[in-house]
Amino acid sequence: MRKGFVVKRGLLFSLLVFLFLASCKEPGDFGLDTQPASDLLETTYQDTFTLNAYTVRDDSIYTNEVYYNMFGSYIDPVFGASYAGLYTHFLLPESNVDFGSNPVLDSMFLCLDYVGYYYGLNTPNEIPVRVYEVLEDFSIDSVYYSYTELLKDVNPLVQTYITPNLEDSVVVNNISYAPHLRIPLPITWGQKFLDESGTTTLENNENFLSFFKGLYIDAAPIFIGKPSGSILQFNLISSLSNITLYYHNDIDTADYNFVIDEDAARFNVFDHNAYVESHLDLQNQLLGNTTSAEDILFLQAMAGTKIKIELPYIENLSKIAINKAELVVPIDQTTSDIDNYVPPQALSLVKIDEDGEYQFLQDQLASSSTFGGQYDESKKEYRFLISRYIQDLILGKEENYGLYLLISGNAINASRIVINGDNKDPGIRIAISYTKID
Predict the structure, then answer these.
(1) What is the pTM of this model?
(2) Which residues contact 17 (CB under 8 A, 6 or more apart)?
(3) pLDDT at residue 120 tops 90
(4) Does one domain contain both 246 and 140?
């Protein structure tokens, strides 16, 4: 798994700075030289200025106890190979479990409740699924990252192929349930749980987790060469997500569920195979060669890639009041292939502090409803209202460490998108409306 990323500054001069130099005026005076002095206070000006933007890796995010979890493998024609795996506990729903006298396992299933998917070319694709027993303790009180790996058995309990079906109900013992995945587990392995009947192992969850630490589920690498595969999204704390045992004893037949609830530790791991199969411009930007970033930028969820945005020399603006400032993010419709690869519903924008950490922009804290970031299908773009942030940069109230643009909810979905660089028309840019206050 990769750690860290390589970045390099992009263009050093924005269009705004060019205009400053061409006019030989103070930075705050661009576009004003044709206006009568008496009109300056009342006049509102519209302008856009370019920025430095380039793609960097985003391979360190928290994934423990997120709302949804994923596993799968997928080959994308632009981003290359991506893999998702998940670790999860299974718990006793009650204390002092007793399966009766001489219990014998008849069958056992790993059940996971479908929520969504990301399919290659928007069609269901078969994926090779593997299930492993985890051999290392993990805890709901600990923090786990998208690159965290735990010790697990070298031999999978299950290695099979599935074709996802999120449409049809599942009938079990003549009862219909909502669509969910059911993977048979080995009876010889599962019998060990029944053999613990009435012992301290099944007395409480602390003892049970010492005996059975959990499962790891992933999809084996699929054939490289053409778009294929699936990344599947599940609700692990749903009542449909569990391990179900069907057994009989000396008296009766019965079933029992080991559950996943809010007390169960669970987290995702992601890998993009170092982007060795990805678009050449993406590879170059991740290596620090940002020349191509003027034309094309790349965003991928699952701790994939993000876009670094720099605003050089914006502090040199003066004597203007920002009425409105928007970051405009148009997608590259050709490379994105939006007919087959659905754009993410929303993007996120955060500022970077002196330690390189993410911080909310004041505009979002003031009004998340107007901050923006949602996909505009008619304009094929995203917009963020960042008026306060830009004004505070001009006034020196904000430190200018730059911004990160990411796919919203990138720990729980597998979407991706390609963005027009600032050299394209339309390209990524900041549009401002301002008033001269001299």
Answers:
(1) 0.86
(2) 27, 312, 313, 316
(3) no
(4) yes
